[in-house]
Design a protein that fits this description.
Length: about 170
């Protein structure tokens, strides 16, 4: 089912929620939108797709863009997209500055929460290490995505913060 979603997003560059729902309903027997939303959330949490808010695109709709994933094409998805009159969009639809600022800010907030928990010893050092590892993966994923699509310069301060966190984590006793 995740590959179906990836194919929809890949085929349209930005797939808006209503388009995803239409293709989903045409191609699955799972008409339950809760299942679809769970898959979307999982893909987003894995940095395979990124959510695009209405103010971050020129069509002012909520949608998704393919993150760090190999393109996945499915003939049945392409057929439905053509039948429904949906068309592939180009990069210019994204308001890249707004979009990148938000996703960088989200990562920065997560780093700040980890830093606070590290300073105040709110969690076991091993859990802090795992959280750092997750943030590091998110950083690298985001860097690759922005480098390929827009500009990754906004991530330089994030790298500095991650390096400082790494140094602090190295000082912890397990």
């Amino acid at each position: 089912m995740k590959k179906l979603i990836l194919s929809i997003v890949y085929s349209l560059f930005i797939a808006f929620n209503d388009e995803i729902e239409i293709v989903w309903n045409e191609l699955t027997d799972r008409k339950n939108l809760k299942i679809l939303n769970n898959y979307l959330e999982e893909l987003e949490n894995e940095y395979i797709i990124y959510k695009i808010f209405p103010e971050e695109n020129s069509e002012n709709k909520l949608g998704y863009i393919l993150g760090n994933s190999e393109p996945y094409e499915d003939y049945s998805v392409s057929k439905i997209i053509i039948e429904k009159g949906f068309t592939r969009r180009d990069h210019s639809i994204v308001k890249w500055d707004l979009f990148s600022q938000r996703i960088i800010k989200d990562l920065e907030n997560d780093i700040n929460f980890l830093k606070e928990d590290l300073i105040k010893h709110y969690e076991d050092p091993k859990k802090l290490e795992l959280r750092y590892f997750d943030l590091s993966i998110k950083y690298h994923s985001l860097y690759r995505f922005l480098f390929e699509n827009h500009d990754a310069e906004g991530l330089k301060p994030i790298k500095v913060k991650l390096d400082k966190l790494r140094q602090q984590l190295n000082k912890l006793e397990y």
